[in-house]
Amino acid sequence: MTGIVAGLSTAERRDVVGDQYGDREYIKRALAGETYVSEPIEAASGNEIVTVSAPIVRDGAVVGALNAAFHLSDAGFFARPTENVDTPKGVTVRSASGRVIYSDQPMPDSSLEVYNATLEETSWTISVAESRTLIEPTMRRVTVLQFLGVFVVVASLAGFGWWNYRRNLKQVERLLDGFAALEDGDYGVAVDIGGAEEWDRIGAGFNEMSATVEQSLEASRERARQLQVLDRLLRHNLRNELNVVRGRAELLLTDDPGDVTEHAERIVRRCDALLESAEKERAINRVIGEGTTVESVDVPAVVESAVDGVADDYPEATVEVDAPASAPASAVPYVETAVHELVENAVEHADAAHASVAVSVDASDSTVAVSVADSGPGIPEMERRVLDGRADIDALHHSQGLGLWLVYWIVDRSGGSLEFADNDPAGSVVTIEFPRADE
User: Fold this and answer.
1) Structure pTM?
2) Measured between alpha carbons, how far is 53 from 33 in angstroms, rounded to an integer?
3) CATH number at residue 22
């Protein structure tokens, strides 16, 4: 210690100056560059004191500490902080540990309203208390005024709300009902909003969006179904055909040379079947993947062309055609492919040595239908159910090939229909129907 200011005699100050106080907390804090205010402590005199210390800096370096001790019992210590507090109010000061170090209770000391604040430098909490009995009359007047103000505001809002509801909110509710329907999966829902011209435009926009969403989702579902069909059928056909090819190849390694021709012929037939499946898969992708638009197609003409193509490939088969001179239909430009697939399928699966197939074209005011009747074993019921949508594709465990699916998607893209029936006395009748085109 180099100096001290206190109510001490010269001899007492001389005894104190020069002592070491470096182990004191407030000295350590100050020498570390911190301004520090201690918790209230009891001094040797019995008084509670608060020690305040601050660093002494010279040329940017801390060279000492300036320290002061304040006696809390001295009324002047809290005089400045409390001089602006009205007499009816009371002040209580608590140290960081929660001990009360100053208290001046309000009068009267009942029904208190208390406000707290914390002094950042010391973490002391200062509480100012005031009896509610002194402010209750003012509070009652304020409450009445607030109630009247709230009533006026609510009444105004109610009137405005009713006017706004009549003008706008009914339309908003109808629009929200439309969005709720979309959220529930009711795609394609239309709303009639009504109201001003702006609302009519909003309603038209919503209906257009709803229809677009429905079309998009329907296209996605159909595309997923197409991919599922192609995956299942191609995997089934590839597995079966490649098993035959592998088996025949293994026999070539072990059999007598005289069997080589038979095995080679079987391998060639199976490879041809695989190539045919690949070509049909490409045709399916052209039909469903190119966004083909419908056009006017003269159905009797394309039927004659398709039948001539089958006759060239199967000269021993008999195919009879009954068709009018002309019957235009609205369809994608693959109707000949569909008819060729149906006729070829009927010829290939005929039970007799010489297949007999009947093709007829029937035209009405609204549709043009092509029916292909054969006397073969018929199309399996499960395959019929999957093709016409009565069963899921997961139920399809076998298939005659991709031909019928190619027919299905040509008809589907044309906006037509595909139907199956039993022939009498045996076989099946497959009918594809298209919308009639304007002459």
Assistant:
1) 0.45
2) 10
3) 3.30.450.20
